[in-house]
Design a protein that fits this description.
With 145 residues, the chain is mainly alpha-helical. It has one domain: Four Helix Bundle (Hemerythrin (Met), subunit A), CATH 1.20.120.50. The chain contains 5 helices and no strands. The structure holds fe (ii) ion (FE2).
Length: 145
C-alpha cells in the first residue's frame, strides 16, 4: 500500500471522510498499476480517480453553498486549480509521458494540505446542513448515483 489513511485526515464528517478515503484508495490502486507497469490500467484508474474527485468536489461545493459558507468561492477556485492539474497529468500521460513521481508527490501533498486546512475549515459551517438527512441523501444520490 502506497498511502495509508490515518485519522489526522479526518474532517469529523463521515460522509466526507468516506469520499476522501475513496480518493486515497484510487491513489493506491494507481501506485499498484504503475508498479505492474500496466499502462492500460493506469489510464483507467486515472480517469476513474479524476471523475470521482470532480464529483466529490461538486458534492462538497453543494454542501458549502447550502450552508452559506462564506468563502465557498475561494474553495471552489482551489478545487478548479487542482482539477486542472489532474487533467494536465492525464494529458501528459496520454502523450506517453512518465508522470509517476510528480503525480504521487503532488497528489499526496496537495490532498493532505487541502483536507487538513481548507476542508477542515468548512466543517463548523456545514454542521447544520448535515442534520437535513433528506437533503444529504438526495444530494448524494444526485452526484454519486
Ligand atoms: Fe475541498
Amino acid at each position: 500500500m502506497y498511502w495509508q489513511w490515518d485519522p489526522s485526515l479526518s474532517v469529523g464528517i463521515g460522509v466526507i471522510d468516506n469520499q476522501h478515503q475513496r480518493i486515497v484508495e484510487y491513489i493506491n490502486e494507481l501506485a499498484d498499476a504503475m508498479e505492474r507497469k500496466d499502462r492500460t490500467a493506469v489510464g483507467h484508474i486515472l480517469d476513474g480517480m479524476i471523475d470521482y474527485t470532480l464529483t466529490h468536489f461538486a458534492f462538497e461545493e453543494s454542501l458549502m453553498e447550502r450552508a452559506g459558507y462564506p468563502i465557498v468561492t475561494e474553495h471552489k477556485l482551489v478545487h478548479q486549480s487542482f482539477a486542472k492539474r489532474m487533467t494536465d497529468y492525464k494529458k501528459r500521460f496520454n502523450e506517453g509521458g512518465d508522470i509517476t513521481r510528480a503525480l504521487f508527490s503532488d497528489l499526496q501533498m496537495w490532498l493532505t494540505n487541502h483536507i487538513k486546512r481548507d476542508d477542515k475549515d468548512y466543517t463548523l459551517s456545514v454542521r447544520k446542513v448535515l442534520e437535513e438527512k433528506s437533503w444529504i441523501s438526495k444530494t448524494l444520490s444526485k452526484f454519486f448515483g
